[in-house]
Amino acid sequence: MTALPHEGGPRGHVLVVDDELSMREYLEILLVREGYAVTSVPGVEPARSVLEKDQVDLVISDMKLGTAGSGLDVLRAARSRKEPPEVVLITAFGTPSSAVEAMREGAYDYICKPFDNEELRLLVHKALEKRALRQENSTLKARLLPGLGGLLVGTSPRMRALWQLVEKVAPGRSTVLVTGESGTGKELVARAVHLRGHRAAQPFMPFNCAALNEGVLESELFGHMRGAFTGATHERPGLLVSAGEGTVMLDEVGEMPLSTQVKLLRVLQERKVKPVGSAAEIPFHARVIAATNRRLEAEVKAGRFREDLFYRLNVITLELPPLRERPEDIPHLASHFLSRLSEELGRPGLRFAPETLVLMERYAFPGNVRQLQNMVERAATLSDSDVLGPTTLPPSVRGESEPQSRPGDAGEPVLGQGFNLERHLDDNERRHLLAALKQAQGVKTRAAELLGLSFRSFRYRLAKHGLTDELDEPGGTRVG
C-alpha cells in the first residue's frame, strides 16, 4: 500500500519491504509523520515492481523476508536501477559478516531490531541527504561540463595547463593532491576530477579534516561498530565505505592529527578500513582526493605531517595558482559570476563598464576567486543601474582610501590617501603574533593563550603570515 505524507509535500519517497504487516504499518506511521511518501510491500517481487514503476529515493527492507526472499535481493534490485535509491537493511539477526556483505553490495547502512525511533529517523535523513548529493552531482555533470560552470574558465596558460591535467588524471584511480591558497577553488577542481571520470554518477563527498576532533574524525572516516563508544547505538559505515565507487575529498588534510595520519596511511595502502571497535577490515573502492592550503613539504620538515603519508597522497599534484598570478582570467570569471546573478536577480541587462573590469584586473585579490565572486554579488545587488561602474567596487579596489573621520572626532582613526584596511589589519596581526611569541619566550601554546586563540588558530595565523618556517625550531613548540 501507499501512504501519503502530511500537508506540505513529500520530503522523499521511501519503499518499505517487510513480510510482517505490523512492522510495515509501524514504519509507515513513523515515516509519514516525518513527511515522507511511503510505499510498503511484503516481499522482493512487489518491491521490484515498485522500483520499476516509481521513483524511489530510499528503500528500508528487512533482511529476513521468509519465503518472499531476502533483504539482499531487494538491495540488488535497487542497485540495478539507473538512478538507484539508497538502501537501509533491518534485521534481528545482526552479525558483522552480514553487515560487511550488505556494505559490499552497496547498502547505505544496517540497523538491528529493536531500534530506537530517533536512531531510524536520523538514519533516513542522512541516507536521503546522500541520495540528494548524488543527484546533485549528476545534475552538475550534465549542466556544468566541460567548463564546470565557468569557474575553471580562463585564458591564462596556467589554467589551460591545469584543465589539461584534470582531463588526464580524471579517468584513473590514483590519489590526487590539490594545493592552493584559500579561495582558489580546490574543492571545485576536485569535483572536476570526479565529474570528468567514470565515477561521475557516484557520490562526491567532501570532508573537512579540521572540523572534528580525533575520535570523531576516525569514526566519520572509517566507521564504527555498535557500542564502540558512548552514543554508538548502531553500526555505521565510514565515509570511505559509504562513498561506494565515488570520490572522497579530504579537505584541509594538513590539519589531520598525527595519530590519524598513521591510520589513514595504512588505509590508503591496504584499501581497507577497520571501523572503530571492530577487529575486521572492510574493503573500500572510493577514490581519494586530498586538498590543502598548506605547503606539506614544510609541514613534513616541521614534524607536523608524516613524510610517508605525504608521498602516498602526492601521487599527482594539481596546483591552483592564486588569482593575482592570472589577472587575465579576472574579466572572464567576473562576467561569468555576473551572468549567473543576472538570472537569479531577474535583471538580464546587467553588465560591467569597461573601466570596472580594468580596475578588478589590477587588484591583487588576497581572497582569490571567492573574494571576486563576493565582490561581483555585492556590486550587482547594490547597483541601481544595469551598468556596473567603478563606484560599485569597494574603495580598496578603486585605489581609494576608506572614508575619513571628521576632524576632532575623538578615538577615531584618521585615514590617509592610499589606506588599505586589509593590509593594515594583516600588519597589525603579524606584529601581535611576534609580540606574543617574544613575551612567551617562544612557547607557542603560551603565545596562543596570551592572544586568546586556540592553538590550532594560532598555528594557522603563523602559517598565513609565513612565520612558521622561519621561526620554528625542531619539534615545533618554541621559536627563536
Characterization of the model:
The chain has 480 residues and is an alpha/beta fold. The protein folds into four domains: 2-133, Response regulator (Rossmann fold); 145-321, 3-Layer(aba) Sandwich (Rossmann fold), CATH 3.40.50; 324-398, Helicase, Ruva Protein, domain 3 (Orthogonal Bundle); 421-471, Arc Repressor Mutant, subunit A. It has helices at 21-33, 44-53, 71-79, 96-104, 117-144, 157-169, 186-195, 214-222, 239-242, 258-270, 296-301, 307-313, 330-345, 354-362, 368-382, 395-398, 421-439, 444-450, 455-464, 468-471; strands at 2-3, 13-17, 37-41, 58-62, 86-91, 109-112, 176-179, 204-208, 223-224, 236-237, 247-251, 272-273, 282-283, 287-292, 316-319, 351-352, 387-388. The strands form five sheets. The chain has a six-stranded mixed sheet, with helices on both faces. A hairpin with an 8-residue loop joins β12 and β13 (282-283). α17 (421-439) crosses α18 (444-450). The longest helix has 28 residues, at 117-144. The radius of gyration is 27 Å and the shape is globular.
